[in-house]
Amino acid sequence: MFSNRRRLQQFQGFLVGLAVTTSCAAYFFGPSDEHKAELIAFDWRMRNFNTLMPDARVVHVDIDDNSVDRVERWPWKRRTMAELIRTVGEFGPRLILVDFLFSEPEAPYYEDPRLEAEPGEDVEIVGAVSDANIVYGDLELAEAIRSAGNVVMSTQFDILPPGAPEPIEARVRRAMAGTVPTDESALRGRLGARDISEAGTDLGRMLLRARAGEQLLSDFTLDEHGLSERLGVPAGEIAAVLAGVKTEIARRRVAELFAGGGAPQREAVLEAVLGEQKDRRNADRRDVVAAYNRQRALEALRKATHPMDAPVARMIYRVAESVPLLSPLAEAASDIAAVNFSADPGGTVRRVPILINDGGRAIAHLGLSAAAHALGLDLGRIEATGEALVIPGAEGAARELPLDGNGGLIIHWAGTADAWRAGRDMPHISAAKLMSIASARRAMRDNEIALRYRMAEVVAAAAGTFTARAAGPEGDTGKTLHGDAAYRQGAAERAALEAKLRLGSLRGTLGPDEAAALEAQIAGLRAAMEAAEKKAEALVRMTCRDLAEISEEEIAADAQLAADAKRFRGALRILDEDIAALARANAALARDIERTKAELADRLRDKFVFLGFAATAQGDIVTTPIDARTNGVMCHAHVFNAILQNRPIRVAPGWAGVLICLIGGAVVSFITSTQAPRLALLSTLGLMLAYAAVNCEVLFKRLDTWAVLAAPEACVFLSWAFVTLFRQLTAERERRFFSKQLAQYTSPVIAAKLAESPRAAQAFKTVQTRDITAFFSDLKGFTTLSEEEDPELIQHVLNTYLHRMSEVIWSQHGLLNKFMGDGIMAFFNASVDPLEDHARAAVETSLTAMEELERLKADRRADPAARIFAALEMRVGLASGPAKNGDLGSELKADYTVIGDVVNLAARLEPANKVFGTRIMVSGPTRNAVKDHYEFRYLAELQVKGKAQTVPVYEVICRKGQLAPEQKEYTERFEAGVELYKARKWDECIVHFTRMLARRFDDAGASRYIDACQELKQFPPDDDWRGALELKEK
User: Fold this and answer.
1) Which is it for strands 134-135 and 109-110: parallel, antiparallel or unpaired?
2) Which of 460, 496, 769, 968 maximizes the CB count within 10 A of its CB?
3) Residue 520 vs residue 132, higher pLDDT
4) Under a CB-based contact definition with an 8 Å cutoff, are residues 1031 and 923 in contact?
5) Rounded CA gap, 496 and 101, in Å?
6) CA angle in degrees (0–180, nearest 5) for 259-262-268
7) What mean pLDDT do residues 28-33 have?
8) Residues 6 or more apart from 597 whose CB is under 8 A from it?
9) Rounded-to-integer distance, Cα 597 and Cα 89, Å
């Protein structure tokens, strides 16, 4: 019955565990199958069990705090960005990947040093402030991108995950396709209940926008009043939606014009949409121009997209709204890629939309685009295989990119990524370092302009001026002419041609022949000017040498000569000082440039350079598994790094996670419901650690696989917890009661351990016959002592003594049966706690008890009862043999005890110590079981009162190896005397023991043998006497 009840409880516990496991798995793998705990566990694995290393070809050029401080405040002008890209391109990188969005144009501006000066600061103007100094930043940036020839630019989209429903606006717009309803009720008739509910009060607004748009398609110049007349709607209501509708219709009309084939010019588009109002500078024209620029950008973007089939389209994100790159930049770039992130609900970026569906064509993520260029991947032939995208390429270069089930690719960060702040992940170069080259070149150009101006002064000084006179009606008239007029005219023509060539190149309005002709004209003018400069320099130096041969008095005496001397000497000073200083400055700048280029050459040559923002307290900072503040460009670089090394993170299928949870929970539920609590806990912890080790060390670290960790661990732990709780509330009640019963006989720790064993519980209830060793102890003379001393002191001493002795007995797994005043009864090898070497445990307990008693005396020297403690002397009797053991008694009172002759014998041996003056007396079977471990003295063949058979008894002297030579010799002499006694040699025995008393006068055993011999001499024993020493005391 006991067994059946237990099995039922175990089965119930198992069912509880299964229920908890199923509920936990349903929670983790429900509609939102990625919970915060699993995401945190993923981040932990990414930081601690990641073996992916950064590819040495990946380099970051960071616009960091130093760059912002040294170059200019953020955002940088487009000209500055152009200089940066142009400088990076000079080092021959394999690819330049720009992680900046340029969706809005930069207005042209004058580059005027006075605009950058501090208040009150004198600024020298180098060059003329004219139309030639207008900066067209977007065009310069486009020219730098085009010149580099290997720049991948970035764009961004508003995207929807695969399977997400269309926005309500798109669904309503589709319902109104064809004929726009005239009222809201008609529109409701075309929509489903869900669409009507989601649209809510905006439905009327959507209808008004559609009706207004229908009118604007026929006449885009209509304003709110014109639309009010046509639609019969108050102008105020139309004004509220008109701006958005105009933008939408302008885009639609321009897209239709581009769809007709070719790329229409802006003027043609303006005329087609605005008609006679095309030249009016108003909001309508701005809308059409913006739509035209946007459509040009979309057309350029379309060239960067790739065809794809329907299965691929269903697996990836799709575009809801485009934010295109500026058309000049898009047209100049070698490729365009998306830089979207796909942040998890908590805001942490763990994945990217690796491919985006833009109107049925695919645009790649920046990291994938870089990999396609690096590996020769064909993005136009991507195939869908299960939950992965297979991208063909050259032999050995094909890549399979596993998706996360929602169109995203998990970012596989390099194992050193968390050290990025210290620069130990991928090589990082500050943009300030590269911009120092551009700044030096800019300074050299300024110096060149200043040098040309100074040289113009030299030419002017050498040429001088003269006055041309002519006769007229009013008499002779004079006109001052400059000798350098031709040089000036050449400089002006050269500047005009250079400006024309620069602007024409930026705008793309010059054909190759026209550009070559301009370059030839500029070269001719430059040669003529350089010839004039050399001639002027030679004249100045020659004239100054001639002047050196004329005394200063002569020069001063001639006004014309003095003026010429001043002019030529000033020109010579310009040549030898100003121009020479500018030349030296440029030489130093050139050396700085070469030194910096030499430092950076190997770091950038043939590398994949990611250009991104890294300054603090600015944008493009995202939370990632490696850091709460990570530069966004790093995400794209690490995506590229993982694809380059063909080590994307694979996401284990959801069914595998469910299966792991169910199996783990079932196993733990079974173990916890059937095994001891400690074993169940250890098994649970072992299983959790084993799965964590396999998950982290094998799946993640070696196989780059993200298998669920938090869910199985939670299922296993919660199953254990709930089954354990169930057992505590049901099955464990019986065990706790059993443990409480056992605690009366042994230590609580041992009792709790024994109570966990079903065999111990069964043994407790069953009476068995088994070999045991009985233990009886008593305190010498304690009864007399207790009558003489204060009762409270006696109680204190006795409680302390019994507590210490109990701990000694329990330490050897003895069961404490009862206290009998100052006496103790215990036994070893109880049925609930089997002990094979029970005799050894009993003897060791006896010796340890004697030692503990001495320690107790020493510890209590300052105790109020110190005198009583000092008087304590302990005696122990041990006997081994068969006895009945179990829960014995009546229904009213039962006791777990032991009964039998061996128990009675031990009880007799304890007081027999008084006869021999010993402290520990054991029976022959006890001594025979442990004789290899302890030293004994054979005392006698004892005839115990009430027993027919004699019992060999021994004194336990000490542990093996502790017997002194003198003690050994005395023991052997004592045993020789016993043999004389057993041989009936009374006189010899008396003499023998008398001599022993001379050596040890307090040997009660020797005295007892002398008395016995004298008695037997007077009353000889029977013929069948076997040398027994009769113990008359009970």
Assistant:
1) antiparallel
2) 460
3) 520
4) no
5) 34
6) 85
7) 68
8) 90, 91, 437
9) 12
In this structure, which amino acid lies at residue 1015?
E
Higher local confidence (pLDDT), 482 or 849: 849
Residues in CB range of 517: below 8 A, 6 or more apart: none
Of the candidates 882, 813, 878, which has an alpha carbon nearest to the alpha carbon of residue 847?
Answer: 878
Residues 566, 560: Cα–Cα separation, whole Å: 10
Closest CA to 631 of 141, 40, 61, 47: 61
* Average pLDDT score over residue span 864-871: 90
Q: Which of 336, 308, 342, 307 is nearest to 324 (CA)?
A: 336
Place of tokens 């009309």: 253
Residue ranges of the alpha helices (H) in 549-574?
A: 552-557, 559-573
Place of tokens 């088994």: 770
- Give which of 30, 27, 141 is closest to 78, Cα–Cα: 141
| pLDDT score of 424 more than 80 | no
Q: Which residue has the tokens 């057309």?
A: 299
Q: Go through the chain and tell me how many residues it has.
A: 1034
* Per-residue burial over 10-32, b = 16 or more CB atoms within 10 Å of its CB, e = otherwise: bebbbebbbebbbebbeebbeee
Sign, Cα dihedral of 908, 909, 910, 911: positive
How many C-alpha atoms does 161 have within 13 Å on its Cβ side? Answer: 13
Structure token pair of residue 210: 């559609």
CB 523 within 8 A of CB 516: no
- CB-based contact 775:809 (threshold 8 Å): yes
Share of the chain above pLDDT 90, in %: 39
**Over 50: is that where the pLDDT of 190 sits?**
yes
Q: How far apart are CA 645 and CA 921, in angstroms?
A: 81
* CA dist., res. 74 & res. 62, Å (int): 13
CA distance 761 to 751: 11
The closest of 805, 1031, 1007 to 904, measured between CA atoms, is 1031
CATH number belonging to domain 766-897+927-935: 3.30.70.1230
Is residue 613 classed as helix, strand or coil in its secondary structure? Answer: strand
First to last CA, the chain: 45
Q: Which residue has the tokens 């487009």?
A: 78
